[in-house]
From TrEMBL:
The lineage of its organism: Bacteria, Bacillati, Actinomycetota, Actinomycetes, Micrococcales. InterPro entries: NAD(P)-bd_dom_sf (IPR036291), SDR_fam (IPR002347). Belongs to the short-chain dehydrogenases/reductases (SDR) family. GO terms for molecular function: oxidoreductase activity. This is NAD(P)-dependent dehydrogenase (Short-subunit alcohol dehydrogenase family). It comes from Agromyces atrinae. It comes from the Bacteria.
């Protein structure tokens, strides 16, 4: 018996990294999964791989920064699978590595359009379906940098702080409908997003890993599946009394 048997999940940013790992894990645990991303080629690959492994998935191209795109895909996914139970807001971009006084308005807006407005749009359009169902679970991808600051990637960290607060606000608001809202806060996880940053780093991935994990108790980069297991717990009925929680999955980074 799967931990998500009978559930329907819609996942944003599911073509890559932790979104992909979450989609595959959810399907293996019995969920029917709407795999969404604006990367059509890789998104289709994920849905095809899930189907080939005996799971149930369908790809929809969705740009989380465009409300019409989000609204249309949410409706299509709910129609396909006869309703929705779970939303995972995973789509995200890293943006520019600049301190506040160097960031342009366009750079700030481009980052917030995806990382903050994307969570808002998907939540806005999925919530009515969860209310119709009598409840559900929303899991938002924030970051350790939605809990604490550092001296890099300022717009991204401020955006992840907004996601932390959107989670608390929605948890407080939607409990009356049986909808739980929680966030996960990974430290650095080896995904294409991080491979891109590490490639630019002096000394490459080994030097980047040593620097990024210097403040962790478990001094290695995370693996996508290690975060996906946390998302699975929060999405499943095993966490039926858990809402408004910010769950660090961070090798102990925020414990120190
Ligand atoms: N990798 C890390 O170390 C790390 C740490 C903490 C938090 N996070 C967060 O976890 C989430 C997943 O990160 P990842 O490392 O797996 O990233 P990733 O780059 O591997 O995957 C992100 C996915 O989001 C998609 N995407 C980007 N913009 C989109 C848009 N406008 N509409 C729809 N899809 C879009 C991309 O196509 C990609 O498939 C992100 O929200 C990220 O900020 C990552």
């Amino acid at each position: 018996m799967g931990r998500l048997d009978g559930k329907v999940a819609i996942i944003t940013g599911a073509a890559s990294g932790m979104g992909r790992a979450t989609a595959e894990l959810f399907a293996a645990e019995g969920a029917r999964v709407a795999v969404t991303d604006f990367d059509e080629e890789r998104g289709r690959e994920v849905a095809d791989a899930i189907t080939a492994a005996g799971g149930s998935a369908r790809f929809h191209r969705m740009d989380v920064s465009q409300e019409e795109s989000v609204a249309a895909v949410v409706e299509a996914a709910a129609r396909d699978f006869g309703g929705l139970d779970i939303l995972v807001n995973c789509a995200g971009i890293i943006g520019v590595d600049k301190p506040t006084h160097e960031v342009t308005e366009a750079e700030w807006d481009a980052l917030f359009a995806v990382d903050v407005k994307g969570v808002f749009f998907a939540t806005k359009h999925v919530v009515p379906h969860l209310i119709e169902r009598g409840g559900g679970s929303i899991v938002n991808f924030s970051s350790i940098y939605g809990l604490v600051g550092n001296d890099e990637f300022t717009p991204y960290h401020v955006a992840k702080g907004a996601v932390t607060m959107q989670t608390r606000q929605d948890a407080a608001t939607y409990g009356r409908y049986g909808i739980r809202v929680n966030s996960v806060h990974p430290s650095t996880v080896l995904t294409p997003l991080v491979e891109g940053i590490a490639a630019e780093f002096d000394g490459g991935l080994p030097a980047y890993e040593a620097m990024m994990t210097a403040n962790q108790s478990i001094r290695r980069l995370g693996r996508p599946i290690e975060v996906a297991y946390g998302v699975l717990y929060l999405a499943s009925d095993e966490s039926a009394w858990v809402t408004g929680v910010a769950l660090p999955i961070d090798g102990g980074y925020t414990a120190r």
